[in-house]
Structure formats: C-alpha cells, structure tokens
C-alpha cells in the first residue's frame, strides 16, 4: 500500500504528515540464565505544523490575525490524525543572546498553546511580561490590533491610547457586559483574548476549535507546560548564512535585510506524536519556557556548537541538505524527517479550463489526488486547489513523472467563508441540500476519497519544462501545450502543429491571427503560463 | 566431529533441538567449541556463519515388554524469553499487563517492579508479538535474530530496541552516531564520541541485558 499523507504547504505555513516510519520487528535473544532484552517504544513524530515568522509581531510573541490561516492548517492536521498528542517548539534566529532567544521562542510556543486550549491567562502573563521576566512587550498596540479585527475600530494603530481606541474599548465593554470604564485592563483583555482566539482558531465548519490539555504530550501535567511547550532559542537553525553574506549583513545598515534573510529560522513547529505516546514531564529532556537553556546545551551533539554556528565561506548550510545544523541532538531526532524543517521548493501548478468565451477559468477548490512518481510506493498527496486553481506540491525529486487525478465536476464551497456571511446563510443551506458537492469532505480521509477513481487523470512530467530561450521552439511549445494548444507530446510537433498553436493562442488573446513569434509573443506565452 | 553452520536467527537451543539433542551445556562446553564460546560468550546469541560442533548421536537401547504401552518423553532444554519493558521516557513499566502472543497462544503477563516479563518458550519458536496496552504499542519480536554485542548489527539492534533509532544498515551511518551519542548521554558516558568504543559497548551490553 502506498503512503498517503497530508501535505499542505504555502506562505501561511505548513501542515504535513511525516513519512511513515516502519517499526521493524525487534530482534531479541532467548535466555537460559539471567540475561534479558530491553524494549522501549521509539518516540515518533507523525506529523507537523509550522507557523512562519510573519504570523507573529516582529520580535514578539503576539500572534497576528494572519495566523488564522496557520491555525486552519493545524486544525486540518489534528483532525486527520486523531489522538496524536502535540508538543510545540518555538525557534529564534541566530541573532542576539541565547537566553533572550530561548525566552522569546518559548513565549511564542506558549502563545500558540494558549490559543489551542483557550487559556487567556497565559496571554495575560505574556502581555504583562511575567513569563521568565525577560521578553517582549505586547503593549496597547496588540489591544488595538485585536479590537480592529473584532470589528471595534480603534483608530490608527499607534501603540498608544487615543480617544478612538478608548471609544472602541467602551463599545467592546458594552457589547460583552464588562465594567464600562474605557480601560483595557485585565478583565477586558481577558474577554478580548477569548474572542480573538476564537477568531484565530476555527474548525472546518467555522466553529471555534478548542483542544484540551490532555491532547498534549505531557497532558498538561508538567509545571509551566513542560513537555507541551518549549523554546529552542537559536539552537536549531534551519539554515546558516555563508560567511560572505553574513559579513555583509552584519553591518548595522543591513540589519533589516539580515532579519529578512533569517526569517525561516524564526518559526514555531508543532509536532504530533504517534497515537498513545505519553510522556512524564519529569523525564522530558527539554526545559520549560521558564527554565534556562542549560539543559538544552547538555543535550547538544558532541559537535553541537559547530553544527549550529559554523559558516561555509560562500554558501549557506541548510538542514534539509546537510542535516547538520541543529545543535540539539534530541530535537534532531524528532525533526529530521519532517517536511516542516525544510525550506522546500514547490511545484506550483495552475489549473484552468476553457470558459464559454474561450476565456480561461481557474479550476478552483477541486479535489486532487497526486501520485509523485511512477512506482507502486510513490507517495500520494491529496488536497484541494485554491481559489485561483493553484496547487502546490513540494519538490521531492528534480525530475519525476506525476500522475494527477482531478475532480473536475465538484466545486467545494468554502463553508467557513459562507458561514461567516450571515446574509448568505439561508440561501446556502437551501442550496447545499441539493448540491451533492456540499457533502464531499474537504479533508482527505486516510484511505482517500471514495469517488476518486472517477476523477480526471493527467500526467505531469515535472522537471522537464525548459527555461525560455535555452532552445529554439521547444520551451514555447511546452508552454503552449500546457495551456491547451497543439497536440500530444510537444517535443515532436511539426511546423504545422506549432503554427496552428501559436495562431490559436494569439487569436484567443487578441494578439493577432498569424503564426509569427516575435519576442513579445514569446513573453506573453511565458506570462500566461506563469513562468 | 560433525559441525553445524549457524543460519539466520538460529541459537544454540534451537540448533541442538533440530539435531535431536537436548543438553545445550555439554555441547556448548565441548572443547571443539571453545573458540566459538570465547568469541560469542552466549550460545543464545550467535552470528550466521558461526560453526557449532556436536557429537555423533549415540544409540541407546531400552528393554521393555511387548503388548504394553510405553511412553518416551523427549527432554527439552529450559529456555526463556525475558523482556524488560520501558515507557517512552525510558522508565521501567511497573506492574502493567502485557500480552505475549506465541503462535495461537496468548499469554497474559504482568511486568514486575523492574519492568520484567518472563515466559518459557519452545526452542524452535521464532516469531512472537508483545502487546503493551498502556503504551498503545505492539512489538513484533524475532527470537534468535539478535546478533552478538561485538558486531555492528548487534549493536544497532540493541540500540533500536531501547528506543534509540540507529537505522538498519550502513547507509544510515549518521543515524547510528545519533543513537550512540543519545545512549552515551543517557548513561553518563563521557565524553560523547558517537562511536562504539569499549566502554560504550560494555555499558550497552549491561543496560540492554545481554
């Protein structure tokens, strides 16, 4: 049976199943005396979800409204792997002090954890800077951001109180029966946080999605969430800049660029552990968010210092290439097969269909099944195209034949968006009773969709597309073919086929009705194709 | 003296049972097997290709009367399967019920205060399953497949069993380094080297149990 796992990767983060680790038989010895065997289950991560840096305020643990998309991914992952306990790992970039970075990354992990279990007190602690005594400051700006997203316009978000913000607080207090004083104090913040957390973290039907402490690795038993939340600081960078780049970017004038380049290192990774994994926080190696990083350093590789800080002269070191940039050996073991710890390249494919006027319409929100490779055990990915008809597939091999099956008939409406629109509700519910597509699950079941055999198949020769200009004819032919012109196998087009394809393309795009191909037409083909 | 070449997952109890003997001790202690004994130390842990000498079978006569039913019982060497079960944090699993599945038979066993379960097994038993409900774990066991402590395969197998994933072949070299360093760390062997030096090997044998 082929591996089937969820893989949802884009700018909003990642949710992915890990490649399945086969637990092979244990080789044991019989004994005639006092000899024995020792058997311990291996701590196995089965999935991951990654919150990119831009979901947080810079240098802060405050979660921005954009993170809604990352939570949606996490919810999808958690729903596809029930009963797999979670543990959250925050990471910082290798700039600044170890102790500060460990605190900040831990605070980010706590912030995510608090949303998942709806613990507004943790946020209140983060706000008032009580976790570990060191750390970022939330301030009035975060209150303004939350008021804004909840529909209480606070005026310009300046980070200081102003009359409009005060009015927004009054309005909010009025709506939720809070003390009517215009002061966003702890009580008001608690309510704001609760509503905002519900906004951020929703289930597939648009309802607030909450988890329990017991859904986490240490079941909420550890002091300060030990075992469930931790900050790895800058101990486990995903990539390390080359010496040349670093020398340039460490100049003060370039610090903005340096911070941008370092962005992938600042991430929060949530791991899902194999079903039934239980950890006693007493024996969990990672220190809690409150504790110092000395326990982290004890768990380092013998060459951990080099791993996390050594620079190559002229090229960066990336974990997904060299697997040697994490200082912590324990984390290395959890993360090494994780798609969340790779800066993955993606195949980006846009699916279009001819509309009634020969215009191209994106095949949006269609279910697809993609087999990446031609062998029996090639991984199978299932998902849904986005509203622009785009699907993104991580590059596993440079050249690979993928077979894709697409559900051309069923458009899956975005239930959440529809539910959020109260005007739409009645009409929608009437419609969905007749529409068979509304009954389709948007999250792929473990064994695949029941009706996926009826999807329309395609073959994708990934890695075969030639860059424009490297060769005469073929790059254009390939793109024209992908856009639906010409006949099978663009490598073997004759003059006539090619001319007809160019002509049709030009007619469809009002660019003439001949088969000439000046550079601007070549560019138009490239643009239309997307690259 | 005839000799037997050890095949995959064979151990002395199985070999001598197949050959029709029962006394492991005397064969293992035979002077012809001194070299093997020194090399392997434990007759239950042999390497495929090892050679075990065994005596010719002796003919024995029994006198008995006709027209009577006579029962001859074949003696079996005593053989155990002893397993210490640990939880995800490496702590012994105390007083928990496990199921040991041996062919069609399921034996319910409770771990003692050291996490140990113990059960008699037949010398030819090769496959077994151990179910540990409190860990939601099921372990497939291959009895006799453990290689000696001084072989890389044997070291990998011990590390894997103890939860330090060490890979399965030379291609996973990096994984073996990972597992050895984790083992060294948790057993306070300093400095960490990531290589199976003598001290580490001794500790591995002691901690694993054979």
Task: Give structural notes.
The complex is a heterodimer of chains A (531) and B (210). Chain A has helices at residues 68-80, 98-117, 120-127, 139-149, 163-175, 186-200, 243-249, 255-261, 294-298, 304-309, 319-322, 329-335, 415-420, 425-434, 474-482, 495-508, 519-529, and strands at 7-10, 13-17, 26-28, 37-39, 45-51, 86-90, 229-231, 239-240, 268-273, 317-318, 346-350, 352-354, 360-362, 367-372, 380-384, 390-394, 400-406, 456-462. Chain A starts with 6 loop residues before the first strand and ends with a helix. By secondary structure, chain A is of the alpha+beta class. In chain A, the strands form five sheets. Chain A has a six-stranded mixed sheet, with helices on one face. In chain A, strands 15-14-17-18 form a four-stranded antiparallel sheet, with no helix packed on it. Chain A is built from 17 helices and 18 strands. Mean pLDDT of chain A is 85; it is low at 415-434. Chain B is an alpha+beta fold and 210 residues long. Chain B contains six helices and eight strands. Chain B has helices at residues 12-19, 24-28, 34-40, 152-161, 173-186, 198-208, and strands at 3-5, 51-53, 80-85, 97-102, 105-110, 116-120, 127-132, 137-143. In chain B, the strands form three sheets. Chain B has a four-stranded antiparallel sheet with strand order 5-4-7-8, with no helix packed on it. In chain B, strands 1-2 form a two-stranded antiparallel ribbon. In chain B, a hairpin with a 4-residue loop joins strand 7 (127-132) and strand 8 (137-143). In chain B, helix 4 (152-161) crosses helix 6. The radius of gyration of chain B is 20 Å and the shape is globular. The two termini of chain B are 30 Å apart. The model of chain B has no long low-confidence stretch (mean pLDDT 93). The chains are: A alpha+beta (531), B alpha+beta (210). At the A-B interface, strand 3, strand 4 and helix 12 of A face strand 3, strand 8, helix 4 and helix 5 of B. Strand 3 of chain A pairs parallel with strand 8 of chain B, so a sheet runs across the interface.
């Amino acid at each position: 049976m082929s591996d089937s796992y969820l893989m949802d990767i884009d700018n909003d983060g990642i949710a992915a199943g890990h490649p399945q680790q086969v637990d092979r038989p244990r080789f044991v010895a019989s004994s005639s005396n006092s000899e024995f065997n020792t058997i311990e289950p291996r701590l196995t991560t089965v999935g991951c979800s990654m919150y990119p840096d831009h979901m947080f305020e810079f240098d802060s643990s405050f979660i921005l409204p954009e993170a809604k998309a990352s939570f949606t991914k996490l919810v999808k992952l958690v729903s596809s792997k029930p009963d797999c306990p979670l543990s959250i790992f925050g990471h910082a970039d290798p700039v600044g002090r170890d102790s500060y970075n460990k605190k900040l990354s831990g605070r980010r992990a706590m912030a995510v954890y608090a949303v998942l279990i709806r613990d507004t007190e943790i946020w209140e602690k983060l706000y008032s800077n009580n976790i570990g005594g060191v750390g970022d400051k939330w301030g009035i700006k975060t209150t303004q951001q939350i008021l804004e997203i909840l529909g209480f316009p606070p005026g310009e978000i300046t980070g200081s109180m102003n009359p409009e913000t005060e009015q927004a607080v009054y309005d909010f207090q009025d709506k939720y029966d809070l003390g009517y004083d215009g002061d966003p104090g702890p009580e008001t913040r608690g309510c704001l946080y609760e509503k905002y957390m519900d906004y951020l973290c929703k289930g597939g039907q648009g309802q607030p999605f909450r988890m329990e402490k017991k859904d986490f690795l240490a079941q909420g038993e550890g002091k300060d969430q030990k075992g469930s939340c931790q900050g790895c600081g800058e101990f486990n960078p995903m990539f390390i800049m080359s010496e040349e780049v670093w020398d340039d970017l460490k100049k003060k004038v370039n610090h903005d660029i340096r911070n941008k380049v370092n962005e992938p290192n600042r991430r929060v990774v949530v791991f899902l552990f194999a079903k039934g994994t239980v950890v006693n926080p007493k024996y969990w190696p990672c220190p809690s968010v409150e504790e110092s990083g000395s326990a982290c350093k004890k768990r380092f590789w013998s060459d951990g210092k080099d791993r996390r800080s050594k620079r190559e002269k002229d090229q960066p070191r990336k974990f997904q290439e060299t697997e040697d940039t994490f200082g912590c050996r324990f984390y290395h073991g959890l993360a090494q097969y994780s798609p969340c710890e790779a800066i993955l390249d993606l195949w980006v494919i846009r699916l279009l269909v001819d509309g009634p006027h020969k215009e191209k319409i994106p095949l949006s929100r269609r279910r697809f099944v993609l087999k990446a490779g031609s062998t029996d055990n090639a991984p199978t990915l299932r998902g849904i195209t986005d509203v622009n008809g785009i699907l993104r597939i991580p590059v596993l091999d440079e050249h690979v034949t993928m077979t894709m099956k697409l559900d051309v008939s069923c458009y899956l409406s975005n239930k959440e968006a529809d539910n959020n629109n109260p005007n739409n509700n009645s009409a929608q519910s009437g419609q969905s009773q007749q529409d068979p597509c509304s009954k389709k699950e948007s999250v792929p079941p473990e064994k695949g969709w029941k009706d996926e055999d009826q999807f329309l198949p395609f073959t994708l020769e990934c890695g075969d597309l030639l860059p424009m200009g490297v060769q005469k004819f073929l790059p254009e032919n390939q793109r024209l073919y992908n856009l639906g012109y010409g006949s099978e196998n663009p490598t073997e087009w004759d003059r006539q086929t090619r001319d007809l394809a160019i002509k049709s393309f030009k007619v469809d795009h009002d660019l003439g009705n001949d088969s000439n191909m000046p550079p601007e037409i070549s560019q138009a083909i490239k643009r239309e194709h997307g690259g | 003296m005839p000799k037997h070449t050890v095949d995959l997952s064979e151990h002395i109890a199985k070999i001598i049972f197949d050959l029709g003997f029962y006394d492991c001790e005397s064969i293992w202690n035979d002077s012809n097997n001194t070299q093997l004994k020194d090399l392997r130390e434990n007759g239950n842990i042999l390497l495929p290709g090892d050679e075990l000498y065994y005596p010719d079978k002796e003919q024995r006569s029994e006198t008995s009367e006709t027209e009577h039913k006579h029962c001859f019982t074949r003696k079996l060497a005593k053989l155990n399967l002893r397993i210490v079960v640990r939880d995800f944090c490496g702590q012994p699993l105390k007083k928990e019920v496990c199921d040991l599945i041996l062919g069609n038979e399921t034996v319910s066993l409770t771990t003692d205060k050291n996490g140990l379960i113990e059960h008699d097994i037949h010398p030819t038993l090769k496959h077994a399953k151990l179910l540990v409900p409190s860990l939601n774990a099921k372990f497939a066991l291959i009895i006799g497949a453990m290689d000696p402590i001084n072989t890389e395969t044997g070291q990998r197998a011990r590390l894997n069993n103890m939860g330090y994933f060490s890979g399965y072949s030379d291609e996973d070299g990096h994984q073996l380094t990972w597992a050895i360093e984790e083992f060294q760390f948790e057993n306070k062997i300093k400095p960490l080297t990531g290589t199976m030096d003598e001290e580490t090997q001794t500790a591995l044998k002691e901690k694993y149990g054979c």
